Predict the structure.
Amino acid sequence: VDVATGSGFTIALKADGILWASGANARGKLGIPDESNYYEFTQVPGTGWQYVATGDAHALVITEEASLFSWGSNQFGELGHGTSDIQGNGPVPGFVVRLP
């Protein structure tokens, strides 16, 4: 139902709320815990995803519970976790999304 691409990676959202990712996983930009490259679509941990967007080396995903998750490169704080740690993964603290 949705697909987003970044630099060297793709994330696809199926109608059942499952995310699938392939490509380069440097800094965890696929949302998969290890940093291996994936040459076939592999399921991203979690379910209930509703929307996906990507930047060059990070992803932002909204859940059906209206939570915002982000992962990947965070060199400039683009993940919204309140730090500029090089890598992050998880819910964005204090952020609740209003679903359409």
Summary: The beta strands are 2-6, 9-13, 19-23, 38-43, 49-54, 58-63, 67-73, 87-96.
